[in-house]
């Protein structure tokens, strides 16, 4: 897609390159050197700047100012450029405000919901795994951070023209499920609340009894029977996990988060993917059977060999990683290797799927199932795993194993979107100890949302900014969800943070409610504008000044660069930062530039219209639904 800023930057680069190759051919500069030299200076020095003259001056022992003047004299003209000026040895470009504003605003309005999108993915399939919560407890706020990151990065990737497959991995054969089955047999009680909440509380009680005589041995026996396939234990595990997942998806739906497919570990076992991957690893001499030491009888991967592919392992004294224990049970790492070989199409296997009814209408969800039909999931170009920072080591092993097997290029396409811990007043997040229960509160994602709605209702009832008093319950609900999402997503994923209600529900800035209010205020202005959707003559844009109006125009022009950067770096916080910056710029514009009472009403209404489009698009990437009036 063509964007005015792209066109202008490309022209600037090409003109400098053409002049440099003519005047200073001995330097041997490539177009990439020119492109890399371009930056955005402080606005008193223009709108674009190149440092190329400084590099050339060193080569020729000339003054940078003289070089910049020579290059400028040999550059052509562009309607979007008002002036080229040499400042301090740099070539500085000053934009023609009228022509540039016309191109930017009319482009934004014509593209509408696609404005800011880029064709980075070219339709390639990306598989995003999130949140993959163990089916033994409700989502706590750590799981919520995972889910919100997965949802936002999926939205951003789709906006960059990737074909995104949102996947949830359900570990119904893990140790935690085995512990739950032991508890059901020995501590049986009936659910008296939302199933995942009840099960989580049971899980905490079960863990208090671990290490008692015979308990761990019983659980190990249950786990082995679960992994054997068609056993009573494996069926019971699937049944209780399904009930828990159903309850977890109620939480997911309340936050507006959805998936395309659920992959169950029991179906991976039934498909023999683990056996296929182990056999392949043994045949390639990447895996080996240990015949001595503490891992005797286990299938392992040699970490010393692996260090040729990844040197920064956490424990240099660890020489082997167990994949299959001597009793035949597989470790998490082994299962993860097999699963990723399927994700990337290394293991050519098609699961059967059936449609589920856990999500909202229009959001189709499929689940692996023996009685389903084959469908086209997996075999992705790129895999993104949203997993806590603590899992960096296992992700490193996963990628290194695939590289050792000869799939280095595919291994490079596994991206770990790591995130730090999140806290809230009164509690930790340990699942085993019940830290998610908090201090006299249940700090689950469900309770957090209930509390957000309650606090948002109180805040909106008190706020003088809310004009539509009859819509306060509806507005409060939207504000509560936006407050949580924006607060979680505005922080760089890898950083730990403490959730703050004062920050999340701040109506004055840097929050979801503030950005939503800015959007609604702009929509209210448009209602009063009563202008035509048809484009206006370029001459009308002569009324744009090099002030707050042009500052806003330039930020609107930056949208696609922001989206592309967020996509490349897998950082939703880049979008949040941009929303904060542009809403602040809109506030300054609105306060200093009259929209309705001026001879530039139609022009300024179009600027407001473009602002509404871009903020709506950006909030949508974070999964935040806008409201048109407040």
Oligomeric category: single chain
CATH C-level class of the largest domain = Alpha Beta
Rg (CA only): 29 Å
SS content category: alpha/beta
In the sheet with the most strands, the strands line up as 13-11-12-7-6-5-14-15
Give an account of the 3D structure:
Helix content is about 50%, strand content about 10%. It folds into 3 domains: about 5-95, Arginyl tRNA synthetase N-terminal domain (Gyrase A, domain 2); about 130-425, HUPs (Rossmann fold); about 445-620, Orthogonal Bundle (Isoleucyl-tRNA Synthetase, Domain 1). The strands form 4 sheets. Strands 13-11-12-7-6-5-14-15 form an 8-stranded mixed beta sheet, sandwiched between helices. A 4-stranded antiparallel beta sheet has the order 1-2-4-3. It has 24 helices and 17 strands. The protein is globular. It has about 625 residues and is an alpha/beta fold. The model is unreliable at about 425-435 (pLDDT under 50). Strand 5, helix 6 (about 140-160) and strand 6 (about 165-170) form a beta-alpha-beta unit.
Which descriptors would you attach to this protein?
24 helices, 3 domains, Rossmann fold, alpha/beta, 630 residues, Gyrase A, domain 2, eight-stranded mixed sheet, Isoleucyl-tRNA Synthetase, Domain 1
Sequence-ordered SSE layout with sheet pairings:
Elements lengths: L3 H20 L7 H7 E2 L8 E3 L1 H9 L3 H10 L7 E7 L2 E6 L1 H15 L13 E5 L11 H19 L3 E8 L4 H12 L8 H14 L6 H13 L4 H23 L6 E4 H6 L2 H11 L3 E3 L9 E4 H4 L13 E5 L7 H12 L8 E5 L8 E4 L4 E2 L7 E7 L3 H13 L3 H4 L2 E6 L2 E2 L21 H18 L9 H18 L7 E2 L2 H4 L7 H18 L18 H10 L1 H11 L2 H21 L8 H21 L9
Parallel strand pairs: 5-6, 5-14, 6-7, 7-12, 14-15, 16-17
Antiparallel strand pairs: 1-2, 2-4, 3-4, 8-9, 9-10, 11-12, 11-13
Helix pairs in contact: 3-4, 5-21, 5-24, 7-8, 7-9, 8-10, 9-10, 12-14, 14-15, 17-18, 20-23, 20-24, 21-23, 21-24, 22-23, 23-24
């Amino acid at each position: 897609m063509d964007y005015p800023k792209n066109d202008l930057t490309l022209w600037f680069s090409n003109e400098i390159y053409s002049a440099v190759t003519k005047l200073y051919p001995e330097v041997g500069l490539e177009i990439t050197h020119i492109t890399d030299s371009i930056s955005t200076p402080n606005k008193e020095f223009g709108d674009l700047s190149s440092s190329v003259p400084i590099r050339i001056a060193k080569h020729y022992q000339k003054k940078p100012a003289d070089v910049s003047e020579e290059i400028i004299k040999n550059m052509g003209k562009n309607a979007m450029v008002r002036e080229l000026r040499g400042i301090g040895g740099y070539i500085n470009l000053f934009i023609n405000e009228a022509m540039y504003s016309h191109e930017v605003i009319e482009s934004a309005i014509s593209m509408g919901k696609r404005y800011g999108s880029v064709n980075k993915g070219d339709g390639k399939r990306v598989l995003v795994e999130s949140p993959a919560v163990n089916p033994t407890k409700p989502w706590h706020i750590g799981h919520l951070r995972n889910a919100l990151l997965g949802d936002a990065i999926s939205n951003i990737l789709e906006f960059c023209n990737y074909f995104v497959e949102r996947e949830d991995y359900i570990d119904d054969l893990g140790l935690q499920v085995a512990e739950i089955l032991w508890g059901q047999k020995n501590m049986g009680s009936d659910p008296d609340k939302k199933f995942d909440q009840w099960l989580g509380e049971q899980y905490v009680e079960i863990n208090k009894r671990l290490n008692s005589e015979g308990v761990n041995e019983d659980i190990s026996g249950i786990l082995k029977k679960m992994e054997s396939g068609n056993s009573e234990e494996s069926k019971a595990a699937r049944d209780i996990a399904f009930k828990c997942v159903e309850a977890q998806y109620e939480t997911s739906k309340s936050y507006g988060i959805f998936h395309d497919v659920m992959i169950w570990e029991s179906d991976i076992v039934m498909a023999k993917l683990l056996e296929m991957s182990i056999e392949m690893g043994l045949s390639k001499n990447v895996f080996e059977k240990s015949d001595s030491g503490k891992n005797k009888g286990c299938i392992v991967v040699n970490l010393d060999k692996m260090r040729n592919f990844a040197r920064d392992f956490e424990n240099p004294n660890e020489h082997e990683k167990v994949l299959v224990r001597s009793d035949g049970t597989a470790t998490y790492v082994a299962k993860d290797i097999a699963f990723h070989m399927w994700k990337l199409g290394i293991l050519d296997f098609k699961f059967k799927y059936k449609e589920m009814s856990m999500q909202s209408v229009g959001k189709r969800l499929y689940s692996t199932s023996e009685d389903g039909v084959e469908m086209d999931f997996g075999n992705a170009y790129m895999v993104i795993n949203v997993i806590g920072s603590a899992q960096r080591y296992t992700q490193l092993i996963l990628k290194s194993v695939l590289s050792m097997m000869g799939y280095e290029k595919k291994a490079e396409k596994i991206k770990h979107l790591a995130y730090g811990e999140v806290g809230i007043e009164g509690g930790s997040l340990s699942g085993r100890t019940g830290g998610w229960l908090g201090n006299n509160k249940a700090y689950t994602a469900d309770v957090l949302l209930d509390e957000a709605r309650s606090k948002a209702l109180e805040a909106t009832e008190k706020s003088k900014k809310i004009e539509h008093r009859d819509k306060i319950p509806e507005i409060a609900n939207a504000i509560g969800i936006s407050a949580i999402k924006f607060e979680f997503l505005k922080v760089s994923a890898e950083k730990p943070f403490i959730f703050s209600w004062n920050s999340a529900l701040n109506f004055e800035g840097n929050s979801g409610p503030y950005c939503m209010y800015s959007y609604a205020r702009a929509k209210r202005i448009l209602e009063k504008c009563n202008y035509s959707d048809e484009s206006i003559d370029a001459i009308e844009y002569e009324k744009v000044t090099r002030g707050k109006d042009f500052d806003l125009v330039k930020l609107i022009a930056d949208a696609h660069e922001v989206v592309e950067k967020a996509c490349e770096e897998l950082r939703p916080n880049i979008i949040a930062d941009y929303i904060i910056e542009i809403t602040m710029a809109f506030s300054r514009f609105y306060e200093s530039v009259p929209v309705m009472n001026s001879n530039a009403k139609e022009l300024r209404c179009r600027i407001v219209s473009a602002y509404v489009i871009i903020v709506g698009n950006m909030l949508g990437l974070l999964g935040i639904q806008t409201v048109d009036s407040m």
